[in-house]
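From the thread on structure requests for the teaching lab: each student submitted one protein with a one-line request. Submission from student K.M.:

"Model 16S rRNA m(5)C-1407 methyltransferase from Caldithrix abyssi DSM 13497, C-alpha cells only."
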Amino acid sequence: MERENKFLKAYLKDLLGDQITRFWNARPEPRAIRVNTIKTTVAEVKKRLEQWNVPFRPVSFNPEGLIIEDDHMPLSQTLDFFLGKFYYQGVSSQLPAVVLNPQKGDKVLDLAASPGSKSTQMAAMMDNTGFLVLNDVSMKRIQALNTNIQNIGSVNYAIYRQPGERIGNILPEYFDKVLLDAPCSALGIIHSHPEVYSWLSAKRLAKIVEQQRQLLVSAYKALKVGGEMVYSTCSISPEENEELIQFMLDHYPLEIVEIAPEIHKLFLPGLTEYQNKSFTPDMTRAIRILPHLHEMEGFFVVKLRKTGRRHKAVKTYHTFKTLAYNHPDVEDDLRQISEQWGIPEDTWQRYRYIKTRDRLWMVNTQIKNIPQENFLNAGLLLGEKRIFGWKLPNDSIQYFSRWITKRHLAVSEEQLRELFNTGMTNVPGVEKGYYALSWQGKAIGSLYVEKQRAKIRLMHRFKVIL
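Reply posted by the TA:
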C-alpha cells in the first residue's frame, strides 16, 4: 500500500468495527478444485489425489468440491487436468451455482460468465442437458471462457458477446434460472489482493453499484415469471449487496428465496440494517462470507424469485436452427468423420450441429433454435476439415475417446512426456496425417504427423505428471 486510502480505511473500519484487524490478517483462501462430473467421478479424483500423496478435504457445501490442504504438487500439470477431469476453482466461488441449483433441461443464463468457473460448474450440474447461455462483454475474457468450457466436454451451451445490461431486453423472460456474479469492488478479497486499496474511492464505488443495478434489472427482465436467480459478489460492501437487493425488491416483483438450511447455517445472514437504513427481514435469507471468520474469500450470495412482471415481455430476437444428423449440410461430413476415425455412424443422432465454413460444432438435441444476436459459438468443436481429412481437436478426441477405433497412435511414456514438454516427438514409419494420441489404450489428444514427427497443440508446454 504505497499511499493511504483514507476513504477505504474509514469505510472498512465503520463496516467491520473491532473485527478490522482480524480481517486484514485473515489467511488466504486455501486452493480448491472441483470435479468435472461430465468426464469422471469424485471417487476417481480422490483416488488420484491419494496416489499423488496430496491431502484434501471436502468443501462443506459442494459434494464435487475438494480443498487441497497441501498444494506441494502442481495439479495443473497432471494428465488428469489436461483431460478436463477437474478444475481449479475457489471455495467461495463454488457457492453461487450450488445455491442456484440448475436442473437438467433448464434454460440458464450466466450473465457475466468469464472466465468460466461457474459456467463449467453449471454445465456439469445440468448433466450436459438443457441450454446454458454464457455472456461476457470482453473478447479477451471470452477466449478464456471458451477454452475452459471446451475442455470440460460441454455440449449444452452458447457464448455471446454483448453488454449484460442489454440481455434482458433482447431475451425477455427466456430463462428458467439466471446467475449474476456481478463485477464488483472486490472488497471481500482485498486482504489478499491489496491492489484494490489503491484505486477504490467513493466515486468509483457508486459507479460500480450503478453498473450492478443495471445488470440486475437486465437479469430480472431475462427471467421467466416464477424463475429464480442468484446474485453474488466477492464484496462485503452493503451498498453492492443488501442495499441494492432492497432497491430491486422495492421496484420489481421479486422475493428472496430461502437457501438450503444446511448451507445457510455455515455462514452469516444478510444485514437487515446499515447506516440508519433498514432492509426487509427476509434479507437474513442471504449469505455473507467474511474471510477472517470462514477461511474463504469474502462473498455475498442471495437467491431471488420473480413473482410477476412490470411490463409485457415482447419477443424481438431472431433465431437460427441447429441441424439434425441427417441434414444434407452435415450428413456427408459426419459420414467422412466416421470413416476416418472409426466412430459408429449411429453416434451422430445423439446431437445436433452447427456448420461454420470448414468447422463443425455439436450441441445436445434439446438445442434446436439458438438466439442469433451477438452469437459467437455453441457446443463442442467436433472437427475442422483440412487437406488431409478431418482434424478432431484435443477436446473432441477426448469426448469421443471410447468410440474412436481408427487412427490411434500409441506412444511410450518417454514419447508422451516429450510431447507435453516440447510439443513434438519422433514417430518413425508413421505416415503423414491426423491421429488420436493413444495412452494406455485410450485416445487422449490430437496429433498431426509430418516427416515422422508427431505434433500436439497445447495451451502451454509442461512436464506432465502421470
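TA comment: The radius of gyration is 24 Å. The first strand starts at residue 32 and ends at 35.
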